[in-house]
Structures are given as structure tokens and as C-alpha cells.
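Why 5'-nucleotidase? Reviewers of the renewal asked for a concrete example.
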Amino acid sequence: MALCRAPPPLGLGDGVLQACRVAARATDLFCSQRRPSLEFTRRVEESLAELMALLLHSSQLSGLGYAEKLVEYLVALGGSNTSKSFVIRHLLSLLCSLANQLWHIFQGQEASAPDAFPVDQYQNSCYLFWILEKLLQSCEGPCRVEVCSELTELLEQRIFLLSKEFPLFSICWWRLRCLLTSSDPSGSQPTPEPRRCLGTTSLTTGVEALMAPFMKQIKCPLLSANIRATGALASTFGISFLPYKILTVGGEKVGVVGYTSKETPHLSQPGPDVLFEDEVSALQRQVDKLLALGVQKVVALGHSGFTVDQQVAREVRGVDVVIGGHSNTFLYSGPAPSSEVPAGPYPFMVQSADGRQVPVVQAYAYGKYLGYLKVTFDKEGNVLKSTGNPILLDSSVPQDPIVLADVEEWKKKLANYSAQVLGSTLVFLNGSDKECRFRECNLGNLICDAMVDNSLRGSNMTQWNHVSASIFNGGGVRTSIDERSRNGSITAEDLISVLPFGGTFDLVQLKGSTLLRAFEHSVKRYGENTGEFLQVSGFRVEFDLSRPADHRVKSLAVLCTRCRVPLYQPVRGEEVYMVVLPSYMVTGGDGFSMIAEEMLKHDSGSLDLSVVSDYITRKQKVYPAVEGRVKIYNSASGPPAPLVALVLVVLLWTVCWTM
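Here is what the prediction returned.
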């Protein structure tokens, strides 16, 4: 009777998928019985190449929902033993071509073309990576060795250089590379930490790059109570993370609720359909739900900075522990184990509005420390005691062999590039956040001078050059270069550490009124260790911090261009000025929304690393000084606490208790 039953109804997509699988099996059967002709092979490969090109170049597939189906069809057809190697090689070739195209654009070779940037191809590239992963998972070791050739090496090099502006490549390549080098078809890697909160840099290039494939493949929950997706993103991005997660540890329920800085739209590019609510009010709603569910132990895990962490501990009823990030604050009880100066004890105790003592912790930056916190609760879920300290991950801590092997492999690939000596410095190039975020710093001066130098085009009858000035957000200077190390040699690796984000230096036309607003914004939150304090070249600015915010610019002058002998002239509100600035600021990063909203003209420029490295190579010996470009009156000499900033922190923690 079963044989007489009608087959289940198939949709069009299901029928095509079954047909693809049958075609793949038939091809293998045909080729196992006779040697295929060159014409047969050519036609099969041309058809597959046409499908792959359609998937990469189409601007409508994603919106119509066809992309996922086409991926399934290509996986089925490419699963044929006859076609698998060709499909893998061709996919790698397409990705290499796209990476090269993006590289040339951001080198400035094609930046003048209005349609030069292949947005659709970049977004669709995730589908090619998905197909590669599926095929490699079903591919035995010899197949991987066959495809792991010059294509993969070239792609790896390009992905490294494009990793900041195009993070989708890095995210996809990490998984793919494991499959290319691992004997385990699953490409399994160490299990990630149990839970993560979304941070400000997670959305640097928008939601799409985060969604595909990172958020679809990650095994641990992503948490944020104060992010709300609207519009088309409500049903996709909006359901890809949770406000909280309930864990069972030792038979006890522990609620972990996440939060993300409400300043993220100023620091990243989440897009108009991703809204960030106030952390405290959003957290309170979710904590109330946890308490109603009988969860008496609540941990807030966030990425909003130490100031907000304390506010959460003080104002959110029901939160027992706060684990923070974003400001990379170093807390420690007792003598510090390394060079970092503690901003306070670990844990940092905050008295809540309802009289409880709430421990707040952070674990600095760079993975240098492992956060360790032990919390003892009573039967009602109240904190009785909290102790701990960050653990310095020095040479006494064994390195993970799998991660170490991967790091060593990357180091081999980058050795020749990173060891290249560009020039030397005769002086200490101070890129400390305690300098560049609070006052003029000489490394900031060097970067800004390089920005202007790169834009020199020669004089005409009216101007000695079309641009004379640049500005650079101090938070973009990430570290210093020591003149006493390697006889002052400056390597490519040094510059990558200083400018790790891979942005461009762009040319923008701004009114004087916009420039004045930008400089006012740069000191609006002065003293909070934020990144918007401006380093300059071709400007002279004076700030009076005794004045109220938005009225602190005492004077602002710019080097004239329409003059035979350059001199500094006051910036006038209605006059138009050409200025070089980082692409990060062009898009409103660090809160410079006035630039994104009011710029009159924008031309994309060269990669920041290329500009500064070329400048140093030409100079060979550099010795930038602090020259009085930025003068500050009525200010304390430095930050209130040494908070070293890199907006990316790994928070690893332990919560224990006794009954």
C-alpha cells in the first residue's frame, strides 16, 4: 500500500533542489563509467560558473529570498565528485577578484568613480563563503590540499588588509581557513565563552555584515536588553539576540542580562532601523521579568563603559553583579602585577539606591588579563561577599595549543610585511590615550601632517594648494612607538598597531560653522577619556574649559591656501574650507554627526596606513614635536583615572556562591 501512495507535494524550490541532487549523482555515475569529454566538462563548468556569478552580482536575490535557494542548488550541484574541485577553486577565484577590487578602491585608484564600490557583491560574498564551507565540510583532506594554493594565500593577505572596513571577510575566512587546514571535516574549534553582549564595534559596517554569517553560526547567546530592531530588521536581526539568558549553575538559576552603549550610533554604523534605548530603563524592564520568574541572582553584562556600569549598579533594582566593558578600565586590589595603574579596587563596590552593595568589575583590554570574580549569595539571593582580581596572563599561564598554532600560522603570512622597516624616529612618538585624548600629542601631529602632505597637488594662480589642514580623532591613535626600541626603527607592524582600523583619509568641504561645531564637540565631554578630542595640522585652536559646553572654543584659525605666504587666519562661519579627515569621522563616528550631515563635498582617499607609511618612508627620519597647535586653558593636567581605550574587550568571568 505504501508503494501506491502519491508522493508528498513539492514546492518549486524543493523540486529544483531534488533535481540538482539527482543531476549531481547522475554526473558522478556517468563519469565513473567513462572518461568525460572536454566538451562535456566545459559545459558543466560554464553552467556552474554562470550560477555562481549570478549569486555574486545580483542586486535582487536577497530581497526576493532567492539567495538561500540558489546557495542550496549550488551546494547540491557542487557536491558532485566531478564538479567539487572546480566549484571550490572558482569560488575562491571570485572572492580573490572581489577582494582585489575593494583593495584598489581603498587605495584610491578607483575612488573617483561614483559606482566603483561593489556594495551588492560585498554583501553577496557571504553566500560564496557559505557554499565553500558546506563543500569543504564534505571534502576529504586531499581535496583541501588541492585548493589550498596561491588563491587562498592571496585571499588571506587581502582579507588582513581589509579586515576593518570589510569585517565580513574576516568573520567568514576564520571558519573557512579552519576547514582548509584541519583534518576534521567539521572544522571544529574551541568552544566559545557561554555568553556575550553586543558591543559598539560589532556594528561598525552595519547589521548585514554582523548577521551573515557571524550571528547565524555563533554557538553562544548574544545579549542586549536595550537594542531594538525596527522595520525590515525586526524579523531578522531583531530575533538574533536575546535580552537575557537564564543559566543553571550548581542547581541555582542565574540570570544574565546584556546591555550596549546607547552612544553606539555615534561610534559605529548600525543604520536607522537599529535603535538604542537608555541602558538603565531597558535593563530594569528585563530584570523585573527575571525576578517575576523567580530568578534571584542577576548579572548585568555590558559594553557601555565604567561610568554607565556604576549607574547600572546604582539604579537598576535587582542587579547583583555588573560586568562591564568598552572603557577597558583596569581595577585591581593590592599591588598591580604589571604596568597598568588601577582606577580602583577589584571589585569596585557601588551602593545601590535600595541600599545593597553591588560589585562592578572590568578586566582592562587586549586579553592581557582574565577577569576572576567570586560572589557568595545567601538563600534569598543577596550578595554576602565578593572577592577576586584580574589574572595576568603572563608566561606562567599555558597557551592554548590550537589558538597558538593558528596565531603562528598568521605570523608566518604576515612576517615579511610586518617586519618591513619604513623609517626611524629620533623621538618618542607618544600615542598614549592619556595624551592624545586630552591634549596635542606628537604622534597625532605626525599623522595629521602626513594627511596634509598626501594631499599636496601643487599651486595654481589662486592657491598654493587646494587643502592645508587636517583633523583626526584622538581615539584613533591606539599606541605609542618607542625610539629606544630597535634604534628607533618604525616597522609596518608598528603602524598597524597605531592605526589598526584600516580606514581612509578623505577630502571634505565644510563650512566654517561646521568646523566650529566639530571643535566644540571635541571638548564637550573633556576629561571622560572619550575619543573625539581632535589632533590637527594646519589649525590653531584655543579652548577655555571654564566655559559651558558648546562655548569652549576661544579661537580657531586655519592656514590660508589662497595666499602666497601661508599664515593662520580666523575661521569664518560662512566660508568654505577643504579639510582632510578620517573616513570614520566622515560617517559621523565619535559623535561628529555635524560632518556627515553638513559636508558640502566628499572625496574618498587613500588607506590611512599607506598615507602614513609613505610619509615616513619619504622622510626616513621623523622627530615630531608638540608645537602649541592646541591650547587648553582652565583644565586639569590629565584624565581623572588612567583608562586605556580600545573598544574591543574579552570579558571572561566566574561567579560562585555558597548557600
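The mean pLDDT is 81. This is the kind of structural detail the renewal will allow us to pursue systematically.
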